[in-house]
Task: structure prediction
Amino acid sequence: MSTIEDAIQKIKMLQCPTGELEDRVTCILEDCNVSPKSDIVINREERLDRDGAKAYSVIIADRIDPAMTLLAKSGQDDYVVQVEDVYFN
Result:
């Protein structure tokens, strides 16, 4: 399995405090040797929201691969967020 596939599998299992989502995703990508944190940009993409999940685009500056999108749902108290899906655009 490639490093990007390892990272995607870890991101799909991610559950963390809502305010830490972007940092946790960048840490996973860096830990899986996909890219250093400084080359990763994560943006909120409201137009891609689906089924109550919030969408985020993940752009890695030094890769040819298309950007990834992740969908995450917050719990009822909006304290914990769970990644629901990760896919390439």
Summary: The mean pLDDT is 91. Helices lie at 3-12, 21-31. Strands lie at 15-17, 40-44, 54-60, 68-74, 80-88.
